[in-house]
Amino acid sequence: MEPPVEGASPPVEDVSQAVAAPMDLDVVSVRDETAFAAKHLSDMGEETEDFTVFTWPLSEYRRQDKKVLSPDFWCAGHKWNVLLFPMGNSNGQANDMVSVYLNYGDQKAVEGWHVCAQFALAISNPGDPTVYIQSQAHHRFTNEEQDWGFTRFVELRKLFSVSEGRPKPIIENDETVITAFVRVLKDPTGVLWHNFHNYDSKKETGHVGLKNQGATCYMNSLLQSLFLTNNFRKAVYQIPTEDDTTDTVPLALQRVFYNLQTSDQSVGTTELTKSFGWKGFDSFLQHDVQEFNRVLQDKLEEKMKGTPADGEIQRLFSGSTKSYLKCINVDFESTRSEPYYDIQLNVKGLNNVEESFKDYVAVEMMEGENKYRAEEHGLQDAKKGVVFESFPPVLHLQLKRFEYDFQRDQNIKINDRYEYPLEMDLEPYLDEKADRSESHKYKLHGVLVHSGDVHGGHYFVLIKPSADGRWLRFDDDRVVPVTEREVLEDNFGGESLVNGAAHPPAKPPLKGAMKRFTNAYMLVYIRESKVNDILAPISTEQVPEHLRMRLDKERKDAEQKKRERDEQHLYLTVKVITDETFQRHQGFDLATFDDRTVPATDLPSYRVLKSQTFVDFRAQIARQYNYAPEDIRLWVLVNRQNKTVRPDAPVTDTDPTMTMETVRDKMASRQHDLKLYLEYINPATKAEWVRLHGVEPPIVVFVKHFDVSHQTLAGLGHFYVHRHMRVMDLALMINERLGYPATTPLKIYEEIKPNMIELMKMKATFLQSEIQDGDIVCFQVEMQEPERHDLDKQSMFTTPVQFYDFFLNRVVVSFRPKFDDPEPKPEFELSLSKKNSYDQMATKVGEMLKHDPLKLRFTQSNGQNGSPKSIIRRQGALTVAELIQPGYMASTANLLYYELLDVSIIELETKKSLRITWVGANNKEDRSHSFLLPKNTTMNDVAQDWLRKEVTLTPEGSGQIRIFEIVRGCEQKSFTGAELVRDVQDSTELFAEEIPLDEWKAANDEGVRVVPVYHYNKEPTRTHGVPFRFVLLPGEKFGDTKKRLQTRTGTSEKDLAKMKFSMIQNAQYTKPSPLKDEDVLFDHKWVDEDFIGLDHIDKRRGPTEKGVFIR
């Protein structure tokens, strides 16, 4: 192991036990500079600016000072020296280890300087330069880190002894030689070996990054690429959003682009993903960049229609290909033109982009058994292929690094070396009839890189924002300059080469990632003749005024909120309880503050300067409530030892200079916020008290009313009582305030703390009852026994004690339907007691849904993402507390899912639930049907006795139902009918359809053929929708077959024009073969793994894939 590398000062604790390695047999001399450097200074892959060797003879080693500095020497115009601690630095044990460092010698260097140096330090025998100990390192020397080296270079005793194969000691006759080999490297980007502490992307590059929400690096990379395609940015700005009141996708994208253009800090994308309809968890799902680009472009094209930006996406990114099939011996050719927005290039088995284009336009010969049937010419030898009719101004190349391995039945990533040029000419791949009036030379503009494997990883993008600018790397919130080598060589994949030898990358894109997993995934080229136009700068003045005004206001508001947060230490928050808020409060104390089970009480809140005087604040409150300041008192609420929050004492106004901070610190010292109760004192009441009791102050008691009939416990207000008054006197005062007859019998309880509610003695005085200011009592009108018994039968609370117990165990539970049914079920919340049993909870939910509680089934939620977890079995002893079990990491606390069943959950024990999605006649998912069936039911019985009653069959159809599951997204696996329901896995997604009449008849007709068909988007592995079976007819040309496919899938003429049809032969070919109208599919030699593929946009996400969606 090498000695630990670090700076000399300040000392760093050395936790490593590493020391210099013993000499090896490949001996070189420290005086042989070239040989020594070749052996010990590895090639860093960077260009050398200067190389210097400095020799420092040292005598009387034992008599040297604790810290010794060598004479200065120069390298690359910089002054250096060697810093030596002969007996070790302070963080090593004294007289134990030698410490030695390379030190930057110019202490007057200007601020912001840096030098990147690779160096080796060696201590050698003064007479034999082949006897030495060395260590090497590299470092970015800066004002903050001016020295770097080895605190534990070598054990001191080893320098004086013959050890580890050395023929002589390093220090002989108390003399030795220290040699410094210093290689200063060029740093064209300015960020070589940068630690990025206090790095300012805007200052260094003129650009800012995008914040990562969790796994949105793929989105950030694409957004930066689109943003720096300036014509695209201009088109996005042109989408009218003046009338958008919520975050639509265009407005949210405009906000991101405008902030990227004008902000000094990295930009957030939360509003954008919200506009997509994504929830929090979606930001932690990594999607495919190409799919995200396609979905986003489709959405924007839709929004651009009828606006000044209409057609701009097509103009920028769309080109055209021509698929052809040409007979060799007769004059017959079939062609079909198709637009594209990106080009998929094969990577496997190919070395570079040029080879991929040649592969793309390669001619396939149709001969022998694979001859082409050409209308009246019969079977003919033919050439089949694709050529380009046009290339767009901005060309997106998708490198097919990911593909499906049918042998292993899984996706894999291809990490082979694959090169791409800075410039290329695409004219050789054009159709001979294509327009060549404009040059087809393209310049590389962007490289989107993926680092990782098929299961995930990290994306970043390399972009050259202007034609004559430098390359930049956009890696989430950081933007740094890069060299052309980093753009090209470092991301070709495979093993990178320097001077013909493998070498590690200068800056690994992902910490811990191996080089072979980091490679280009998408390339952006711009037509050379259009570069200046497409990348023309966009000034702030060119942004529509309404957009500028709106977004500038948003920014100012955000800055104001930030200032408020930054100045928060100057303010405190004051919350005021009034008689009105007390009367609305249902719970303990006068208001709810820190109860995790229920929301805090909505109280009037004030952001008050700590330096504001209390007298001013009281006047402010008095004005707001139309009181005279002398008629109100503000009581400070404190946390009592028994966990209650009660008014403790009123704030006095004897000191007019007393500040609000002083009030809080002196009267509520342990509280962050100041909680006050506003007491209004009626002058007449005050005068009456003085008449009766003189100057002795009253006790302020708060009273709550437990209303049995309404099952509420609400505040009545505050009362003034004398310490010698009896509790029965308070009962008279309550009856008088409520207008009850004076003889109305009341029961009065003291609310001591949440789990201590005690009945008060009516004849006891308040002194005897130990009542003080701020105490709370509650009362109820006494009930007769028959009335109490009747309420008990209705499971209603009959005493405040019971109601307080409910408060103590109260929890708000959210209920959500488990499935998305065509008839949506409500989401709602219920306040339940943790002590409620399963049946009590089910009863309350049943009342809410007007459904039999025994026909409700509940499912717990996953605390991490809120998805349904495990079904709850009905048990008598089960309580709500056990059902919700809110965990520390739970993001959706107290959430349960419910299902409305047709049978009771008691009956469920002997049955199994099946959910089958019915696929209509046009291969569209119609609706789902749920069945509760005896476990020994056969799948044939499911189809004939259960499903048939729920679906509508075609009047003149086959009348036969097929139940199937989807395999690999591309094939139906049918049930024979003999399988039992109990053997169907819970995770199996079931589908069913009426077998088409022509397929049903074909079962007994050897003259027709039934083949599998599936839907995909661009890549055959990216399946969607429901695969189906299709009948081929003898001699039918594909032009007619296509019309039947259109009928079978219910596809409109507009969508049919966008759909591509292909033959997918997984056993023979890696890429789909386009189908022509003249093809006769019946004549194809069909084998297993042959499919008809329908290539089109996934407008509705199928059940087999969780893909990108933008609402």
TrEMBL record:
InterPro entries: MATH/TRAF_dom, Papain-like_cys_pep_sf, Peptidase_C19, Peptidase_C19_UCH, TRAF-like, USP, USP7_ICP0-binding_dom, USP_C. It catalyses: Thiol-dependent hydrolysis of ester, thioester, amide, peptide and isopeptide bonds formed by the C-terminal Gly of ubiquitin (a 76-residue protein attached to proteins as an intracellular targeting signal). Residues 208-528 form the USP domain. Residues 51-182 form the MATH domain. GO terms for molecular function: cysteine-type deubiquitinase activity; metal-dependent deubiquitinase activity. Its EC number is 3.4.19.12. It holds the Pfam family USP7_C2. GO terms for cellular component: cytosol; nucleus. GO terms for biological process: protein deubiquitination; proteolysis; regulation of protein stability. It is found in: Nucleus. Its main location: nucleus. Keywords: Hydrolase, Nucleus, Protease, Thiol protease, Ubl conjugation pathway. Belongs to the peptidase C19 family. This is ubiquitinyl hydrolase 1. It comes from Leucosporidium creatinivorum.
